[in-house]
Amino acid sequence: MPRPSPLGLLLVAPALALVAALFLYPLGFSLVAAFTAEGQPTLRHFEKAFELYATDIRFTIFIVLFSTVLIALISIAIAGVLTLSETPWLIATLRWLYRWPLFIPFIVAAQCMRTFLAKNGLMNNTLVAAGVLEPLQAQSFLDWRGIVITFVWKQVPFVTLMLAGAMASLDRATIEAGRNLGASRLRVLVELVLPQVSQTLLVGLVLSFVTMLSVLSVPMMVAGSQPTMLTVDMAFRINAYGDYATANALGVISYAMTAVVAWIYLRHQVRREAEA
Amino acid sequence: MTTAAIEVEKLHVGYGSVAVLHGIDLAVAPGEFVAILGSSGCGKTTLLRTIAGFQKASAGAIRLSGRDVANLPPEKRNIAMVFQSYALWPHMTVLGNVGYGLRLRGVPRAEARRRVSDLLKLLNLSGLEDRKVTNLSGGQRQRVALGRALAIDPQLLLLDEPLSNLDAKVRVQLRSEIKALQSRLGFTAIHVTHDREEAMTMADRIVVMDAGRIAQAGAPKEVYDRPNSPFVASFMGADNTIDLEVAPAVSGVAIRAGTEPPIAWSGQAPFGRVTAYFRDDVAKLDHPGARVPGAIVLPGRIAQRAYPGGHYRYGVAIGERHFTVTDDRYLDLDTPVGLRLPLAQLHLFPSAKEEGGSYGSI
Fold first, then answer.
1. What residues in A contact B54, CB-CB < 8 Å?
2. What angle do helix axes B168-185 and B138-151 make, rounded to 10 degrees?
3. pLDDT higher for A109 or B321?
4. Angstrom distance (rounded) from CA B172 to CA B167
């Protein structure tokens, strides 16, 4: 192997320094702070975090997992239509429409959802006007459902973009061979196309999972205060009490969730490489 | 008359406003092996894809054993296709690939495994059931693709240039294997290729396509020996051309090449200015002044010589033109020779540019 040249190291040094200063140092600091009190190692902050926020931890896991499942299903459906549909206008419309949410920030999406999903919001007004709903039946979606809807709305385009790209780069003949042998388009999608793009789908979902876990604005703006997601709790501990220790403990719990997902991804990757 | 396994009638196909097939008529008898031959862009693959259902016809009928399938989706046609790129599913084993059609038809697992294993034996792939298809060689992959298509016992097998991605040796071997399988299992097949030899050796009948139309159809020998147009003649390998003049004579015709004296010939030829098409192997070397009945001899000299093995290949210069001839003898460069062209083996067609008048009589 060629020896790394000092010039190369010099060139990457600014980037490395930035990563170290803005990511590694705060990460290490927050890890240490989560496990120490007055210089002594302790699990006190975790006890407090679990005591106060056990419901929110479960709530966060549920929201993010449920959203991930919905994102997967909807992205597969849209990418499947884009790849396998034989109706040109449907493909053109869908292709034009599905990407829009990518360009809208979470906070704007959350704000829009507030007016859309409220009890007298746009969605209910439309349903009432269309005669689908009686005014008295109208209910607010500004709770866990609102968070899930916003996350799914925001992340589906991202995963679909990756997935549709991967499907488009498949050898078209592998799709045609399936239909030729008698497989319906749904079977072609599930049995022949998806297994070939599973890697891309997994990457998209892992990235979405981590993104959703770290969004503060959506749970804060869309849902009420209880239960809520860990990001809101962390912000609250710091803003209201200056309680960095508990906030750091909650942060470590978030890292742990991310780590589980990262582990699943890496294991899958390693197994694939071993097979290839 | 028995019903054709597949019958295509006045088939028109286009991509958007560009018409690709202009009214194709083709009937293939059960158990027949037909090769569709043509250069790139002539519409042969489009014809195959339209029969399979991947391309919509703008007009015309496609009848499979008498049943019109033109409006059926591909999965409802029971036609199997073998693709140029093999199109195997990389996430499945050999068994998974070959048995997929059986799985779709609800064949029980054990029964499917048995049938796949029988088929693999026919294809010389025994024991590879559980191998990943990504771990196979090109020839093995194409055999698996063939097995996958044959597993469903299709009414019709479509082969879309299945051998063109393989190296020469494997290609020749698979050619005869496919042909042997076809005679053994008796399926009807349409094979699309741009390789003349492949079409000739495998097919019962050859269909030559040109610019979205059928130029000629017939038994390989018939198309090879009696092409009906300059296009078919040159596609079948008769790339050399020479201009001749044909005039009526007392018995038969008199044929003259350039300023040479006319040769009497008892065969048939169109009168006037004609272009003769011939293959390299038709021309022979002779003495410059030789007079051979039924042949024209053009004086020239040896301009090039190569030894590709077995015989010599000479470039003979006649005036400003060069013709390629093979001969067993060794000849020095610049040796004067006569290029002997047997008239019966030339394909004579009226020249494209008729200048009219001056060649009607001698």
1. 176, 179
2. 20
3. A109
4. 9
pLDDT of residue B28: 95
Beta-bridge partners for B264: B254
- Set of chain B residues whose Cβ sits within 8 Å of the Cβ of A178: 89, 100
Shared domain for B71 and B150, answered yes or no, is yes
Closest to B116 in 3D by CA, of B106, B81, B126: B126
Domain of residue B196, CATH code: 3.40.50.300
Residue B277 lies in a domain: yes
DSSP B321: E
Please tell me the total count of domains within chain B.
2
B132 contacts in chain A (CB < 8 Å): 275
Domains of chain A, start order: 53-103+142-275 (1.10.3720.10)
Contact yes or no for B296/B267 (Cβ under 8 A):
no
pLDDT above 70: residue B256: yes
Given B208, B235, B262, which residue is the final one in a domain?
A: B235
Q: Rounded mean pLDDT of A91-103?
A: 93
Band of residue A2 on the pLDDT scale cut at 50, 70, 90:
low
Tell me how crowded residue A102 is: count the other CB atoms within 10 A of its CB.
Answer: 13
Q: Angle at the Cα of B190 (from A179 to B192), degrees rounded to 5?
A: 90
What the block records as the tokens of B244 is 């001749």
Burial class of residue A239 (count of CB atoms within 10 Å of its CB; 0-12, 13-18, 19+)? exposed
Q: What is the pLDDT of residues A182-214, one digit of tens each?
A: 999 999 999 999 999 999 999 999 999 999 999
CA distance A273 to chain B (A): 13
Number of H helices, E strands in chain B: 9, 20
Contacts of B83 in chain A (CB under 8 A): 173, 176-177
- Look at A118-127, B171-180, B243-252 and tell me which has the smallest mean pLDDT: B243-252
Residues B314-326 have a mean pLDDT of 88
Confidence band of A276 (pLDDT split at 50, 70, 90): low
**Considering CB atoms only, which of A171, A196, A275 is closest to B85?**
A171
pTM (predicted TM-score): 0.84
B75–A182: do the CB atoms touch at under 8 Å? Answer: yes
Token duo for residue B17: 């406003």
The partner residues of B18 in beta bridges, in order of sequence, read B15
Last residue of a domain, one of B192, B214, B235: B235
Co-location of B146 and B271 in the same domain: no
CB atoms within 10 A of CB A181: 27
Q: Which of A211, A219, A226 is nearest to A257 (CA)?
A: A211
Q: Clarify whether residues B333 and B305 are in a common domain.
A: yes
Range of the domain at B94: 6-235
In this predicted model, what pLDDT tens digit does every residue of A142-160 receive, in sequence order? Answer: 889 999 999 999 999 999 9
Average pLDDT over residues B200-214: 93
* Domain assignment of residue B355, yes or no: no
Report helix, strand or coil for B167.
Answer: coil
Of the two residues A231 and A271, the one the predictor is more confident about is A231
Return the residue in B55, B56, B75, B130 with the most chain A beta carbons within 10 A, the one to mutate for interface testing.
B75
Claim to verify: residue B52 and residue B194 sit in the same structural domain: yes
Instruction: Look at B239 and A91; give whichever has higher pLDDT.
Output: A91
Q: Would residue B357 count as lying in a domain?
A: no
pLDDT value, residue B293: 83
Q: Which of A81-85, A264-268, B240-244, B290-294 has the largest mean confidence? A: A81-85
Same domain, B308 and B341: yes
Query: What burial letters (b/e) apply to B107-138, b meaning 16+ CB within 10 Å?
Result: beeeebbebbbebbebbebeebbeebbeebee
